[in-house]
Amino acid sequence: MVQAARSGIQNIAEGSMASGTSKKMEMKLTNVARASLEELRRDYEDFLRQRGFGIWLLRDPRRADLIARRPENANAVALWVKEQHLKQKNGRDGPDRQSMKSTRSISDPVEAVAANAALTLIAVASSLLDRQLAAQAAAFEKEGGFTERLHRIRTARRGT
């Protein structure tokens, strides 16, 4: 799971660095990053299923709350997870059964809240990468890659 997460981050960075010289490589690396996040998503879902914990549905209010919070780092996510777990434990703002695919109880253990938070953030990152890939493809189709742009410049300078 750590390797998939690191791979996603590294490929986003490498794709960004390659964007100036190769749109094709930028798209390839962004797609590899997207695939790494998909692998990580499946790992978290397996973690939850194997322990009998529920997977939050899209309409679960905790997802919306986490997304609205826009945590800036892992510590902010960890703090949010602790807050959610305490709310549930104390019987305030816990999930209703209809917002869960499956559940053992209304109050999730902290590891289930953390895994679902990770799934929520992976979904956000995946959505952003999907939009980035679409924009990269449109730019490549419109402008071509580095070689095509160089050819256009050279041809224009020659006047042919």
How many separate domains make up the residues? Answer: 1
Percent in helix: over 70%
How would you classify the quaternary structure?
single chain
Query: Unreliable runs, pLDDT <50, ≥5 residues?
Result: 97-105
How would a crystallographer describe the biggest sheet?
none
Number of helices, counting only DSSP H or I runs of 4 residues or more: 6
Radius of gyration over all CA atoms, rounded: 21 Å
Calculate the mean pLDDT score and round it.
Answer: 85
Task: Briefly note the structural class of the backbone.
Answer: mainly alpha
- Bin the strand percentage: under 5%
Question: End-to-end span in angstroms?
Answer: 54 Å
For the secondary structure, the number of strands is: 0
General shape:
elongated
Q: Which sequence of SSEs, written as H and E, runs from N to C? A: HHHHHH
Overall description:
This protein has 6 helices and no strands. Helix content is 73%, strand content 0%. It has helices spanning 2-18, 23-50, 61-69, 74-89, 110-143, 146-158. The longest helix has 34 residues, at 110-143.
Structural topology:
Blueprint lengths: L1 H17 L4 H28 L10 H9 L4 H16 L20 H34 L2 H13 L2
Helix pairs in contact: 1-2, 2-5, 3-5, 4-5
Tags for this entry?
6 helices; mainly alpha; 0% strand
Concise account of the structure shown:
The chain has 6 helices and no strands. With about 160 residues, it is mainly alpha-helical. Helix 1 runs antiparallel to helix 2 (about 25-50).
